[in-house]
Amino acid sequence: MKQSTHLNRSTRVLNSSHGFSMLEVICVLLLIGIISTVIISRAMDNSAELLAEVEIVKGHVRYAQTRA
Predict the structure, then answer these.
(1) % of the chain beyond a pLDDT of 90
(2) Which residues neighbour 55 within 8 Å (Cβ) at sequence distance 6 or greater?
(3) Any long-range contacts for 4-10 (C-beta under 8 Å, 24+ apart)?
(4) What is the DSSP string of the chain?
(5) pTM above 0.70, yes or no
(6) How many Å from the N-terminal Cα to the C-terminal Cα in the chain?
(7) For the chain, which residues make up each domain, given as ranges?
(8) Which of 36, 16, 32, 15 lies closest to 24 in space, CA to CA?
């Protein structure tokens, strides 16, 4: 009798978990969105800084060419 009760409990636990809840899916999607926003904004900032540095180097090269 005890074994039968134990099997019924474990079967109920297995049958009740069919996947992720909507709340879990929404939380994961929200985290992915926040992380991607941070990564993209940092990449954009780095590109803007890189372009500014390139322009400075171009200016130095042009100056060196005029002095040569």
Answers:
(1) 47
(2) none
(3) none
(4) -HHHHHHHHHHHHHHH--S--HHHHHHHHHHHHHHHHHHHHHHHHHHHHHHHHHHHHHHHHHHHHHH-
(5) no
(6) 99
(7) 19-67
(8) 32
